[in-house]
């Protein structure tokens, strides 16, 4: 009789087992401060390991990709297409959230006095810090790093991308001398992908700890009053992936279900950790293997982590309507159009702020007359909804890389089909 080893399970199944164990541990150690602290620390260590490798991968892959592209006109065209695509998809996500909120009325009949409330002081502080960093000019000014190494130390993705684009173009411009840099950075990227594979072996433990800490803090009972809102948010995200993303993929002769099968492990990882960064290194690697040119992959995906947050957009619009309905505030069509425009702007300006979705909500609520204290109603379950919206963001950025690659004829469909077959079998 053959023994069945855990190592034979795919990473996706190992993460799912970690997810279930985390829920069990969270229930067992409910409100146990010692256990919560231990699980939070273990989970934070895993996220720190991922953050440790993200920027080296982005720098090496993006610089090499831009250097190989070597064409300023193509780069400008790719950049324009990418930003326009991101804006269209984000707008569609916000509109879908508003439609679902109006049709299904998740906040109707909610007694705001009987809901579990949470401390929002950290989000108030983040909102104050973000006020000076929102708006079009603030975003543009924030692109240019006065000190590249300072941007690296703070983990500011956009200034790093800006510098790497110019560094890649400069590397291409000096010809043969630049090949030394390209070969070095290619070796760096390969080393970092190998390190990624090692770190991913600890993912089930990290996932178990993160979920366990969340459930132990809020408890399952706190979810019951907001159960309808949580279920509706997840169903809306599912509709967006299959319906909206599926339709857009079909327009570009792509299959959304093929993509989901290829990136299912990364989507599960993003879902269970509520961290897009956890999936970024492997997503970059897989999109490259799917036949999209390295330059487009390494530009589109990191940029999408700031500008293409479809899951967050759905949540913000749906949550805004939920809170308005809970406080019995009727929003006219004009007010909802204003809400749409405000969310389109604020979601870009605050994407890098901790707890960004709640901070965006906090900045938006005043425009529709909801008191800041309203945020306390959903802050407690934000982490659980965050899991879903993070997975949607990862799927959306992966699809964006394929679509931009297809539009630039930098996508090898035969290579993609061959790579997809490895997941079928």
Automatic annotation (TrEMBL):
Key word Cell membrane present: yes
The keyword DNA-binding belongs to this UniProt entry's keyword annotation: no
Swiss-Prot/TrEMBL GO biological process terms: dicarboxylic acid transport
Molecular function via GO: symporter activity
Keywords of this entry: Cell membrane, Membrane, Symport, Transmembrane, Transmembrane helix, Transport
GO CC, alphabetical: plasma membrane
Membrane topology: Multi-pass membrane protein
Stretches assigned to coiled coil: none
TM regions (residue ranges): 12-30, 42-67, 83-104, 135-152, 158-177, 198-220, 226-252, 290-307, 327-346, 358-381
Location(s), subcellular: Cell membrane
This protein's name: Na+/H+-dicarboxylate symporter
Classification lineage: Bacteria, Bacillati, Bacillota, Bacilli, Lactobacillales
């Amino acid at each position: 009789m053959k023994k069945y080893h855990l190592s034979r399970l795919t990473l996706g199944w190992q993460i799912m087992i970690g997810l279930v164990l985390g829920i069990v541990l969270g229930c067992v150690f409910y409100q146990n401060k010692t256990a919560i602290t231990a699980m939070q620390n273990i989970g934070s260590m895993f996220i720190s390991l991922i953050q440790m490798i993200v920027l080296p991968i982005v720098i090496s892959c993006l610089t090499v990709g831009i250097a190989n592209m070597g064409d300023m006109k193509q780069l400008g065209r790719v950049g324009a297409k990418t930003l326009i695509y991101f804006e269209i998809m984000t707008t569609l996500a916000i509109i879908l959230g508003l439609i679902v909120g109006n049709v299904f009325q998740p906040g109707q009949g909610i007694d705001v006095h009987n809901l579990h409330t949470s401390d929002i002081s950290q989000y108030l502080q983040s909102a104050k810090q973000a006020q000076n960093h929102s708006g079009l000019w603030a975003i543009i000014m924030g692109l240019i790093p006065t000190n590249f190494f300072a941007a690296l130390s703070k983990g500011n993705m956009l200034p790093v991308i800006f510098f790497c684009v110019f560094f890649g173009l400069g590397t291409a411009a000096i010809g043969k001398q630049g090949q030394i840099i390209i070969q070095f950075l290619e070796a760096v990227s390969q080393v970092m992908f190998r390190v990624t594979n090692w770190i991913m072996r600890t993912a089930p433990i990290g996932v178990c700890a993160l979920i366990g800490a969340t459930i132990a803090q809020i408890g399952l009972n706190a979810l019951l009053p907001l159960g309808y809102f949580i279920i509706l948010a997840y169903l809306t995200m599912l509709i967006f992936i299959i319906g909206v993303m599926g339709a857009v993929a079909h327009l570009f002769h792509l299959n959304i279900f093929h993509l989901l099968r290829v990136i299912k492990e990364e989507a599960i990882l993003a879902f269970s950790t509520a961290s897009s960064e956890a999936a970024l290194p492997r997503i970059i690697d897989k999109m490259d293997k799917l036949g999209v040119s390295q330059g487009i992959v390494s530009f589109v995906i990191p940029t999408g982590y700031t500008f293409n947050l479809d899951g967050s957009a759905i949540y913000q619009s749906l949550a805004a309507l939920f809170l308005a309905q809970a406080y019995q505030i009727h929003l006219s069509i004009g007010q909802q159009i204003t809400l749409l425009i405000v969310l389109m702007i604020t979601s870009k300006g605050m994407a890098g702020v901790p707890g960004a979705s709640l901070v965006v909500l906090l900045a938006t609520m005043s425009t529709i007359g909801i008191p800041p204290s309203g945020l306390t109603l959903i802050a407690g379950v934000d982490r659980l909804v965050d899991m879903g919206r993070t997975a949607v963001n990862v799927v959306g950025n992966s699809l964006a890389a394929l679509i931009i690659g297809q539009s630039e004829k930098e996508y090898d469909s035969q290579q993609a089909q061959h790579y997809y077959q490895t997941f079928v079998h």
